[in-house]
Amino acid sequence: MQAPEPPNLGSRTLESDIGIQPRTIIMVGASVRAAAQSARRAGFTVIGIDQFGDWDARNACDEFVDLEDREGVDAALSRHPDALVVPVGGISDLERWLDRHPQAARRWVISAETRQSIDDPLMLSSLAGRAGMSFPETLDASGRIIRTVSPQRWLSKPKHGSGGIGIRWHTGGTLPDRTDPQSRWLQHWIPGRSFGATLWIGPRRTVLLGVCRSMFHRMTTQSSAKNLFANNPFVYSGSFGPIDCQPSVVDPLLALSRHLSSECGYQGPCNVDFLIDPMGTLWLLEINPRWSGSTELVERRMIDDGVLGADDSLIQWWLDDTTAHVAVSPRRRKQGESDAYYKKVCFARRRLLFQRERIASVVDCNLQIADIPVDGSVVPRGTPICSVIAKGRPSDPDFYRRVRRAHHQLCCETRFPK
């Protein structure tokens, strides 16, 4: 699959004109844990900036700064003037702040212009149409119709975000003001099954690395200033895969990524969120030019299949601008059932005190715990505790039972603070 040469590179590579040698990288996102582990495996020095500060995220980073600590972020940028800034999650407020920061603006591995172009529903609608996919009717802050279809329910979506946080049912009222930085899109809801596709877009070829089912969790906890998960019916709760795909799914995704490269000049890893409705139509929802929640499952499968070495990393592919990768397309895997990965986010059913020693009774050779809170952390009701990542055969009922059992133990049986 040959992708056209991009006219203006929206991603910056190892030998870019800004002269940065990214063996030290600054990762910024809602959660940097999985991407930081990937980068460290390849020998990068990682400066992590994220929202949750989980124990294993901190452990994967050489330095760690809380996303809300702007003075700490500023100091980290000053200490590492030659490090690229790599986005690995939706971080709207900090992202805009970094775009204006004199030390960070020129060091984004993806330019602000490219990110804004990929976020534009007009661009998404155009890319979807050229790839043979559909795109839901979407209204911007001025009420302009992007594309016309006829579903019956509307969603209110933040223009920037991560993990489904802030996506809610729209119950009527006026549209947001275009000048409001917190303004939102209104988008018709399409029924169907949700998926996330991980692609590699290079200057000479485009590869679909894997497709995973996406799962979501309805959160209706009471709102508070610090509870991002309050009253959110579409919070990301995990992925399953990679799964086998038919050409009717693979071909539009590859076409979409080629048009993304030619239209926006983007190269690197890319996650495409899409759904398949009951009639089999593919609907593009959004494109994230970065590491995503399901990318680590795809990377693990690539290591299992020998496509990646044990010390290789998708982050290394991106930053070292390796373009001659040989990957196994989901429709060309060898015959016979392969192992899949099941990632399930555990949400606290009541306020609890996390103790890492309890993980020992859950973990086995094919089941791991990730996104682990700092020992002794109080986890509010309705917020994530950690993630369960299991490996097994999809046809084996015990595979799913093990995940459900671990999920129940972590959500319901952890000791509570007095």
UniProtKB/TrEMBL annotation:
<protein>
    <submittedName>
        <fullName>ATP-grasp domain protein</fullName>
    </submittedName>
</protein>
<dbReference type="GO" id="GO:0005524">
    <property type="term" value="F:ATP binding"/>
</dbReference>
<dbReference type="InterPro" id="IPR003806">
    <property type="entry name" value="ATP-grasp_PylC-type"/>
</dbReference>
<feature type="domain" description="ATP-grasp fold PylC-type">
    <location>
        <begin position="132"/>
        <end position="294"/>
    </location>
</feature>
<dbReference type="GO" id="GO:0046872">
    <property type="term" value="F:metal ion binding"/>
</dbReference>
<dbReference type="Pfam" id="PF02655">
    <property type="entry name" value="ATP-grasp_3"/>
</dbReference>
